[in-house]
Amino acid sequence: MEFTARISFLRIAPRKVRLLGQSLVGRRVSDALAILSVTMKRSVDPLGKLIRSAVANASKSELKAEHLFIKSIIVDEGPKLKRFRPRAFGRAAEILKRSSHVVVTLTDGKSMTGNTKLDAKSKTQNKAGKSADASKPKAKPDTKPTLPTAK
What we know:
The protein is of the alpha+beta class. The chain has a single domain (2-113), classed as CATH 3.90.470.10. 27% of the residues lie in helices and 26% in strands. It contains four helices and five strands. The chain has helices at residues 14-21, 29-38, 44-59, 117-123, and strands at residues 2-10, 68-77, 81-86, 92-97, 100-108. A three-stranded antiparallel sheet has the order 1-5-2. It has a two-stranded antiparallel ribbon with strand order 3-4. Helix 2 packs antiparallel against helix 3 (44-59). The protein is flat. The chain starts with a strand and ends in a 28-residue tail after the last helix.
């Protein structure tokens, strides 16, 4: 079962929120909150509140936080506030103050597919069952590469 929580118009750039959000996907909720408690980023507080809100939504279905995983954290771009800064020779440079829309999806361990750390390894395998590294030609360790000689 999935539970979501969302925050709109968060006045932090989406690039900075994604940086922290991607490190939490696939983890237990308790582990994610522990990581957030020791991380020094501005987006820690809003993401922590959002995860706790999703846990509160899940508790209505009588699920405990120990059984929940973070399935996905989607960070989309919100509207930009446009400001101007004076520059040399009477010009003006535009400053974009970006905002974010964030959606956190929690799931119980039963329906967790597609976003776990273990599934990342299986995604690197192609259809033939070989890993992506196996398709690359391997260099011989004994020989040194030689340059063509000029005639």
